[in-house]
Write a structure and sequence with these properties.
mainly alpha; 9 helices; 57% helix; globular
């Protein structure tokens, strides 16, 4: 199956993450989503989630990230466009799962680590499911990254920060749920760690 993520976009995401030194995955995601090449909607958000989770973790623990970023791209580049509606699981959930799976070196025969991946992705999917539709890739990214970080903090003993965001995309999103969205109504940034 041919890849679905524009290669130029994936390359820019990877380049940004390689140069980034932050351990705040949500803030990294926010900066990446502001890049012109990252559209309002699109499969690049699946890779973006994986890339920022890997970047934050690797920066925190001083681990080389290049190989992991490449591996994540290969994994998520096969997730079909529109997967949230066609298969019932958002590509950002799978992007989060891919990142955690890479960090834990999970395979189909893993035991506790496979359980950890599933617990983390279940938390992401559960939070996303509260919204129903229509889709919003920006909201999905913020939820996937923040919930994955909380899961990594719980299940993997990390202490990565979660910076809550305020949406800047309302006017560009014709399907925006406005006040029904937690990122629309938030009026400031609040840094929470260790959740």
């Amino acid at each position: 199956m041919a890849g679905v993520i524009p290669k130029e976009t994936a390359d820019l995401i990877k380049k940004f993450c390689m140069e980034c030194e932050s351990t705040d995955a949500v803030s990294i995601a926010d900066k990446l989503m502001e890049m012109e090449c990252v559209r309002m909607r699109g499969p690049e958000h699946h890779y973006l989630v994986s890339a920022v989770l890997l970047t934050a973790y690797c920066n925190e623990y001083k681990i080389e990230k290049k190989e992991m970023l490449v591996k994540a791209y290969v994994r998520v580049n096969t997730i079909p466009v529109g997967v949230c509606a066609l298969y019932g699981s958002c590509g950002t959930v799978m992007g989060a799962g891919a990142a955690v799976s890479i960090l834990l070196s999970v395979n189909p025969f893993s035991k506790e680590d496979l359980q950890r991946v599933n617990l983390i992705t279940a938390g992401v999917q559960s939070h996303l499911a509260k919204y129903g539709g229509p889709r919003c890739c920006k909201r999905a990214v913020w939820i996937a990254v923040s919930e994955a970080v909380r899961g990594m903090n719980r299940c993997m003993g990390c202490n990565l920060p979660v910076t809550l965001q305020v949406c800047k995309y309302t006017k560009r999103n014709s399907e925006c749920q406005a006040a029904k969205c937690e990122f629309y109504i938030r009026r400031g940034y609040k840094k929470v760690t260790g959740l």
